[in-house]
Amino acid sequence: MKLYYRGQSYEYDPSKVKTQKTQLPFQAVPKLGRAYNLMYRGVTYHVNGCAKSAKVPQPPTAYKLIYRGIIHFVHRTAQGKFTVITQPAST
Questions:
Q1: Which residues contact 87 (CB under 8 A, 6 or more apart)?
Q2: How many CB atoms are located within 10 Å of the residue 62 CB?
Q3: Domain interval for residue 85
Q4: What's the structural domain count of the chain?
């Protein structure tokens, strides 16, 4: 069978395709509790589901947004709370 991909032609014969031993996409590691070996694109990653992720503090941010002549100042605190101050734009 002739296949085309991005302008290149390839011959494909299903009877000549070798089968490869497939692995499960993830498998539990029995001696480590809830840890897993994950596979993505042929690379195996070890992931521990019991591990706590580190909390990264978000720096406070401020934005000046203008929409239809109205200026909105948006401030986000480190705790993730938002405050909005609106004022008409001066011309």
A1: 70, 71, 73
A2: 9
A3: 55-91
A4: 2
